[in-house]
Design a protein that fits this description.
Layout (H helix, E strand, L loop, with lengths): L2 H18 L21 H7 L26 E3 L5 E4 L4 E2 L12 E2 L6 E2 L3 E9 L10 E5 L15 E3 L16 E2 L11 E2 L27 E8 L3 H4 L12 E9 L8 E10 L6 E10 L3 E2 L9 E4 L5 E6 L20 H4 L12 E13 L9 E10 L16 E6 L13 H8 L24 E10 L7 E12 L2 H4 L2 H10 L2 H14 L1 H14 L1 E3 L14 E3 L8 E3 L2 H6 L3 E3 L5 E3 L12 H4 L9 E3 L31 E2 L2 E6 L13 E2 L1 E9 L17 E8 L2 E3 L2 E3 L4 E2 L5 E2 L2 E8 L6 E7 L7 E3 L5 E2 L25 E6 L11 E5 L6 E5 L9 E12 L2 E6 L23 E3 L3 E2 L25 E4 L6 E7 L4 E6 L3 E2 L7 E2 L4 E2 L3 E2 L8 E4 L12 E9 L2 E10 L1
Parallel strand pairs: 31-42, 48-58
Antiparallel strand pairs: 1-2, 2-4, 3-6, 5-15, 6-7, 6-14, 8-11, 9-10, 11-12, 12-13, 13-22, 14-21, 16-18, 17-18, 18-19, 19-22, 20-21, 23-28, 24-27, 25-26, 29-30, 30-44, 32-33, 32-45, 33-40, 34-35, 36-37, 38-39, 40-41, 42-43, 45-46, 47-49, 49-56, 50-51, 50-57, 52-55, 53-54, 57-58
Helix pairs in contact: 8-9
Length: about 1000
């Protein structure tokens, strides 16, 4: 796309938006007819947020400091089945579907069936010391949350479980704090996960992001504040008065089976006001829309389901297959005075059965859109900060208030709160809660279908001190469901609750089978439940059931407290400043896990650490040279160009091989799978290929084995005649390199350690570890800032305990290009998508299975093979003539795509045989009028590829018309320099280069 064309599109978009906002309450985003819950319009945003809309660089719509661009391609979770956009503007989802093709909350994958429009954050509190009455009760909502500055560092950061420096609950940078009053046996204590992933030096040690905790197979981390100059100057319904809050948000997704259908969002709200805040509440507006985006008004035929999914479900604790709660939580008692006072016998478990509590609500399509909208979108409350005594906050996890309504309902009639007073009144429960005595939502569902919006809140927390944090974790989940079953759920839940405990396990399994969306929510809560394990550096209980530590600040006098167990024994225990005293305030042995076998002699040694979100994970997919984060023209580090003449070369690094499994700490990588998508037509609303579009090109397993702890370096062996030979293997689809014939054959296969080979085709990929080597004999590794090779130390799979030094090994990081695969089954000018996924082998309960990464791609990652350069004496146009029939399926130019926000025509012709060096193409009418001008250095895909940072500078993400020295092809989208579609006719063109001037012609038929 040329710069002139891009600027023209910006003007057209502005004109279209101006027309849209002329009507009352017109929405600033597509789809047409959608009314924003808060009445926001694009004109209103432009007026209130000029810093984000002033022209800068080549993009007139937004400033390049907005990384990622919430108006264009952004941060989208897409390793699981729910594709959800994450922003740092106080909401998740895609509000700007008229200028961005990112999915908002689509399922499954890039299906163009949406289940989420917007998830908006709201935090309210009381500032009792405020002198201005208008500043006492305030709420920070939606776009009042902004990045702290407009600098490029204040962006969204991407990570994954197992990334270097991002291991959870691990001292990645090996630093210690001698002032830590507790947390380890003897100070100094390890500083663990002390750095939030935000591009800043959070702990003041001179390093950035050196020790943080990453979750899931894809995580986005960001920071927002409510007191930025830009937010204070913003006026929507009323003037914003900040509370002085920082929000650290992490959003992540899983690719492992069972966890693929929900995305998790964790909020840490930190009081930065300099004083105490009271009655702090956290709330969310949920605009859940269900339906295919190609259907007009798909959001107007939904029903709300306030009571689904929710309920308490019993689960047995143990190691039996199918029982997912870890066995250490059982806490086998011992014959002591303390235990004998309870109702538990010495030979039974203290926690044989636990309760999994599911809190959530949903919105669902009325009829499933003839089998297209088969899921139900649910908002799940996973966890939040609790006070077991209920003195300063909620005693258990649950909603404080809830309401659901259709768009346009006034606040007084149960509708949307539009000013801070109404929002705080709702979130604090002063306007009614719709929560029953059991803590679950008891609101009645709507009796008419429409565009439903919901509000929910948690809290309040009293006396939140300056610097204190409040956590809340939620999830957006989608799984199969239908409205007829949803309305029956309250009755079935009551039947389950009334059933004898002995039959509930079977009933729960039946309910999970009938309601996949319920089981999905239950699985999310189980994933959070995690495991209990020995771990240094964290305070842990000193006896069974004691989940809450209490410790006084320095200089405070001793106080005496008791829990329910102390009441039984008629005792009080002291709380001092020296060390924590542990209490069982929730009176449950299922929390506060303690192991008597190791704690009998030293009670503190028996405490177990609760590790939430404990899930096995496949290795992260490697960095691929066709990915949008790597493939761009101005990247000085790109070594392998993907697009060639009737060929595409895939190149990737060894990231997957040097990443330890976050659960086992093993290097358990086994191989790669290479995937491809052809003939993609960009269905309406689709951000990229769907799950069904992918074709497997090859499965390459790595030759890496050992015998008695010694690595096997080759598969060659000596035959009876003492000849060194390779084993012969039957290959089903062997390709003869001489004749090109494909068929079954038994051939010798010679492998060395580190080789990749495909069992079906027999193809062998040998790693190139000399790429970027600095000299003879030097490794071609990736080097750090000091010039040293990056080395990752991990545990050798199945060799023994990772704590044993002999069972660990060092592996070097190698760059993109270590492995290469050439696909010649392509045609020049057509778009293709590729993914290289990694898989491992894992053993659970004696069974070995494989976990693999998710194949996915967005439009920005399409790669187009290009005709090689010509002499400049023969340039031709394809197709010629171009027949632009109304139906895309009728056009001979099979590369035309369905128009979308970033490509409003979907059409193009290509100039082939272009010369090396700089060139300029000019297109004229037969009467000599200049229609368009295309230069070799013009940007292509500028509107779908965001800027990319190499850690030092921000580089353009787009390609050039001449993307590399062998690129002899350029495209034009048939839009004139005046921003109009060209009409039918004969057109002339010239190509000016250092080879001279060439002339030609082509025909357009419409």
């Amino acid at each position: 796309m040329t710069r002139d064309k891009f600027e023209m599109l910006g003007l057209l978009a502005g004109l279209a938006l101006a027309v849209a906002v002329a009507a009352p309450h017109a929405a600033f985003a597509q789809p047409p007819g959608k009314i924003d819950p808060d009445g926001l319009t694009m004109d209103g945003l432009r007026a209130a947020m000029p810093e984000y809309f002033h022209p800068s660089g080549s993009n007139p719509r937004v400033s390049p400091t907005d990384i990622p661009d919430v108006f264009g391609p952004g941060a989208v979770l897409r390793v699981g089945n729910v594709y959800m956009k994450v922003t740092n503007w106080g909401h998740n989802g895609n509000l700007f579907t008229n200028v961005s093709s990112d999915p908002s909350g689509s399922w499954p994958g890039a299906s163009a069936v949406e289940y989420l429009s917007s998830m908006r954050l709201s935090v309210g509190a009381v500032n009792a010391g405020a002198t201005d009455p208008n500043a006492v009760r305030r709420v920070s909502y939606l776009l009042e949350w902004r990045p702290q500055t407009l600098e490029p560092d204040d962006k969204i950061y991407r990570a994954y479980d197992g990334i270097v420096n991002g291991s959870r609950y691990v001292n990645d940078d090996n630093d210690f704090d001698s002032s830590n009053p507790y947390g380890c046996a003897t100070p100094p204590c390890a500083k663990i996960d002390e750095d939030f992933l935000d591009g800043r030096d959070n702990d003041g040690d001179g390093q950035i992001d050196e020790d943080f905790g990453a979750l899931g197979q894809e995580m986005y981390s960001l920071v927002m504040w409510d007191n930025t100059i830009q937010a204070i100057n913003t006026v929507f319904a009323e003037k914003h008065v900040p509370l002085g809050l920082e929000c650290r948000q992490r959003a992540w997704a899983y690719s492992v089976i069972g966890f693929q259908d929900f995305n998790v969002v964790e909020y840490e709200i930190i009081n930065r006001s300099g004083h105490v805040l009271d009655s702090l509440c956290i709330g969310w507006l949920l605009d859940i829309d269900s339906g295919p985006v190609e259907l007009s008004n798909f959001f107007n035929d939904d029903f709300d389901v306030p009571t689904f999914p929710q309920g308490e479900f019993l689960v047995q604790v143990g190691s039996t297959p199918g029982q997912l709660i870890d066995p250490l939580r059982r806490q086998q008692p011992h014959d002591t005075q303390e235990i004998s006072r309870t109702v538990y016998k010495p030979d039974s478990a203290l926690c044989p059965v636990d309760t999994i509590r599911v809190n959530g609500f949903s919105v669902i399509d009325d009829d499933g859109d003839v089998g297209r909208t088969t899921g139900v979108g649910s908002f799940l409350l996973i966890d939040h900060t609790v006070d077991p005594l209920g003195e300063t906050g909620p005693k258990r996890v649950g909603f404080r208030a809830y309401r659901s309504f259709t768009g346009g309902t006034p606040y007084a009639q149960g509708g949307n709160p539009v000013i801070d007073q109404q929002r705080f009144e709702f979130m604090s429960g002063q306007a009614g809660t719709n929560i029953g005595e059991d803590g679950f939502i008891n609101a009645l569902p709507g009796d008419q279908k429409g565009d439903y919006i919901a509000w929910a809140s948690v809290g309040p927390w009293l006396h939140v001190a300056d610097g204190q944090s409040i956590f809340a974790t939620v999830a957006f989940a989608v799984q199969r469901g239908n409205y007829q079953d949803m309305i029956k759920w309250p009755t079935l839940l009551e039947q389950y609750k009334a059933a004898p405990a002995s039959t509930r396990n079977k009933m729960a399994n039946d309910l999970f089978g009938k309601y996949p969306a319920l089981y999905n929510a239950y699985s999310a809560q189980l994933a959070f439940a995690g495991v209990h394990e020995k771990r240094e550096g964290y305070p842990t209980p000193d006896f069974h059931g004691r989940e809450t530590p209490r410790q006084l600040s320095l200089g405070a006098p001793t106080i005496y407290l008791q829990d329910c167990r102390d009441v039984e024994k008629g005792q009080l225990r002291p709380v001092t400043e020296r060390e924590p005293t542990w209490f069982d305030f929730d009176c449950s042995y299922c929390t506060g896990v303690w192991d008597y076998t190791t704690g009998a002699a030293n009670p503190q040694a028996g405490g177990l650490f609760h590790k939430a979100w404990n899930a096995e994970a496949p290795p992260p997919n490697p960095t691929l040279n066709v990915a949008s984060r790597y493939n761009f023209s101005d990247n000085p580090n790109r070594k392998v160009v993907p697009a060639g003449d009737n060929a595409i070369t895939l190149a990737w690094d060894n990231l997957s091989e040097v990443t330890q499994d976050p659960k086992s700490q093993w290097f358990d990588f086994r191989g790669y799978k290479v995937w491809k998508v052809s003939d993609w037509l960009r269905p309406v609303g689709s951000a990229g290929p769907s799950e069904a579009d992918w074709t497997l090109l090859g499965e390459f397993r790595q030759f890496r084995y050992e015998l008695s702890g010694v690595p096997i370096t080759t598969n060659r062996y000596f035959d009876p005649d003492s000849n060194l030979v390779c084993p012969k293997v039957f290959i089903p689809n062997y390709r003869d390199t001489v004749t090109g014939i494909v068929g079954p054959r038994t051939v010798p296969v010679c492998l060395d350690i580190g080789d990749l080979w495909d069992h079906q085709s027999g193809q062998i990929i040998k790693p190139d570890t000399t790429l970027e080597a600095t000299g003879p004999g030097q490794p071609g590794c990736i080097k750090d800032s000091t010039g040293r090779c990056i080395v990752v130390n991990g545990c050798t799979v199945h060799r023994g305990p990772c704590e044993t030094p002999s069972n660990r090994e060092d592996r070097l990081r190698y760059p993109v290009g270590t492995y290469r695969y050439v696909d010649r089954e392509v045609k020049n000018g057509f778009s293709y998508f590729y993914a290289v996924t990694a898989f491992d082998s894992t053993t659970t309960l004696g069974r070995t299975t494989e976990l693999g990464g998710r194949r996915s791609a967005v439009e920005a990652e399409g790669v187009v093979p290009q005709t090689s350069v010509g002499t400049g004496k023969k340039v031709w146009v394809v197709p010629n003539p171009y027949r632009g029939y109304a139906r895309i399926a009728d056009r001979p130019s099979a590369w035309d795509l369905t128009p979308n926000a970033s490509d409003p025509t979907g059409t193009h012709i290509d100039f082939l045989g272009l010369p090396t060096g700089k060139w300029t193409i000019r297109v004229y009418t037969v009467s000599g009028d200049l229609v368009a001008q295309i230069r070799s250095e013009d940007a292509v895909n500028e509107s779908v590829r965001p800027a990319i940072s190499d850690g030092v500078t921000s580089l353009p993400g787009y390609n050039r018309q001449q993307d590399n020295s062998s690129d002899g092809q350029a495209r034009w989208n048939l839009i004139s320099r005046n921003g109009q579609d060209i009409v039918s006719g004969i057109y002339l063109f010239t190509v000016e280069s250092n080879e001279g001037t060439q002339r030609g012609r082509f025909v357009v038929i419409r």
